[in-house]
């Protein structure tokens, strides 16, 4: 049993995550298509249509989380998409293609995406698990003003921590690229 | 009692958010610091395809519309020098004539690469520099494929399609070192310094004894 507030917080956070992710992929469309091509998982002719389709799917998922329609399906789809991304990253890590950007930034950030690492795989799997947690049966109680405040504060804290974690991934990649230059 | 808990809870939330923002700011500062103090002499980035690897041929569209293939074995077995430049990079402008004359002297196939949205700006740039005779590719994909992060950047692909050398090039010496690296087999300046360091470490002991 989870508290309804927890479910609501997860839903709002994922809505925010998907909408920002979709915005990022649309705002730098050419760049994302090139990044997707660098993953070398799809036939070259598919890269462009898939690069257009992915942000669309993400935006639909984001809106669905907001509206709260078919929560079970949406949570499973979210976990599935995150799992697919994690698999794509893991395959490229296995091939040793660690230098490509992940294409997983949020918002209209002009900066670079973090380079691929096992941390990203772990992050996606953890996010997928959180999404699935939203499907657990929730207890019933009326949500009041305090719960609204808690929701807003929790979201603010999540946004700051998520950005901080992404920044640390970028720093980590920068440090790793120097260290290798010695051997 | 409930009031006290409520106040304490709100206060704690504020502290949590302020702390999270502070952590984010610290991480960003560390990131900026990394960019600022990046090793000044590190000519060869460690990301991207490695020297000695076979490159994969990819075809791009040049500024005048003709297809340009970069990577893979060359039909005439000529080495290819790809130089990334940009209208907004002052060092690049100074380096272009050097690259052109070097390509002629060493019989290299010279390809210029850049990226950006404004094609008219690139066309004017090509006209300014008088490099219309060489293919000029405006492609983000090409830059991503060789992990180009700083300009001017050059890669040298041998006639057999093997990546011979690459690096950040600021001067004629840097450009020449790429060709030198292909002919001598010493991968980079870092490698060369490594070899001479090892040599120096070994010699003083002999002098002492």
Please outline the helices and strands.
The complex is a heterodimer of chains A (183) and B (209).
Chain A lengths: L3 H24 L1 H10 L5 H24 L3 H25 L22 H16 L11 H35 L4
Helix pairs in contact in A: 1-3, 1-6, 2-3, 4-5
Chain B lengths: L1 H35 L21 E4 L5 E4 L9 E5 L5 H17 L2 E6 L4 H11 L6 E3 L1 H6 L7 E5 L5 E6 L3 H13 L4 H20 L1
What does the radius of gyration of chain B come to?
24 Å
Structural class of chain B: alpha/beta
The helix/strand series of chain A, from N terminus to C terminus, equals HHHHHH
Please tally the β strands of chain A and state the result: 0
Largest sheet of chain B: 5 strands, mixed
Content-based structural category of chain A: mainly alpha
Helix count of chain B, per DSSP?
Answer: 6
Number of strands of chain B: 7
Span of the ends, CA to CA of chain A? 53 Å
Q: Residue-averaged pLDDT of chain B, rounded?
A: 77
Largest sheet of chain A: none
- What's the overall geometry of chain A? globular
Radius of gyration of chain A: 18 Å
Question: What portion of residues of chain A belong to β-strands?
Answer: under 5%
Contiguous low-pLDDT stretches of chain A (5 residues minimum) are none
Provide structural commentary:
- The complex is a heterodimer of chains A (183) and B (209).
- With 183 residues, chain A is mostly helical.
- In chain A, 73% of the residues lie in helices and 0% in strands.
- Chain A has one domain.
- The model of chain A has no long low-confidence stretch (mean pLDDT 85).
- In chain B, a hairpin with a 5-residue loop joins strand 1 (58-61) and strand 2.
- The longest helix of chain B is centred in the N-terminal third of the chain and has 35 residues, at 2-36.
- The radius of gyration of chain B is 24 Å and the shape is elongated.
- Chain B starts with a helix and ends with a helix.
- Classes of the chains: A mainly alpha (183), B alpha/beta (209).
- The interface between A and B is medium-sized, with 31 and 30 residues.
């Amino acid at each position: 049993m989870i508290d309804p507030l927890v479910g609501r917080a997860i839903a709002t956070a994922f809505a925010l995550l998907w909408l920002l992710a979709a915005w990022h992929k649309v705002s730098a469309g050419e760049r994302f298509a090139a990044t997707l091509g660098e993953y070398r998982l799809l036939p070259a002719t598919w890269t462009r249509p898939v690069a257009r389709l992915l942000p669309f799917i993400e935006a639909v998922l984001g809106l669905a989380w907001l509206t709260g329609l078919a929560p079970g399906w949406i949570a499973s789809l979210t976990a599935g998409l995150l799992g697919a991304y994690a698999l794509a990253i893991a395959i490229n890590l296995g091939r040793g293609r660690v230098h490509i950007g992940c294409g997983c930034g949020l918002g209209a950030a002009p900066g670079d995406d973090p380079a691929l690492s096992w941390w990203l795989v772990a992050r996606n799997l953890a996010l997928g698990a959180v999404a699935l947690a939203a499907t657990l049966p929730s207890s019933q109680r009326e949500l009041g003003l305090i719960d609204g405040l808690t929701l807003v504060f929790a979201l603010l804290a999540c946004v700051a921590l998520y950005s901080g974690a992404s920044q640390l991934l970028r720093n980590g990649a920068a440090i790793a690229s120097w260290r290798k230059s010695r051997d | 009692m409930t009031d006290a808990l409520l106040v304490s809870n709100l206060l704690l939330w504020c502290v949590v958010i302020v702390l999270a923002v502070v952590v984010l700011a610290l991480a960003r500062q560390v990131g900026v610091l990394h960019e600022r103090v990046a090793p000044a002499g590190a000519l060869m980035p460690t990301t991207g395809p490695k020297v000695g690897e076979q490159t994969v041929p990819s075809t791009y569209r040049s500024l005048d519309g003709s297809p340009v293939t970069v990577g893979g074995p060359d039909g005439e077995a000529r080495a290819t020098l790809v130089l990334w430049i940009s209208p907004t990079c002052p060092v690049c402008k100074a380096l272009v004539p050097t690259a052109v004359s070097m390509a002629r002297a060493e019989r290299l196939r010279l390809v210029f690469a850049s990226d950006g949205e404004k094609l008219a700006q690139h066309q004017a740039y090509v006209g300014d520099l008088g490099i219309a005779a060489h293919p000029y590719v405006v492609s983000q994909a090409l830059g991503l494929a060789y992990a180009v992060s700083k300009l001017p950047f050059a890669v040298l692909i041998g006639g057999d399609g093997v990546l011979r050398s690459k690096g950040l090039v600021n001067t004629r010496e840097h450009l020449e070192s790429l060709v030198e690296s292909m002919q001598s087999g010493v991968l980079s300046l870092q490698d060369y310094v490594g070899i001479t360091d090892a040599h120096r470490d070994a010699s003083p002991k002999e002098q002492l004894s």
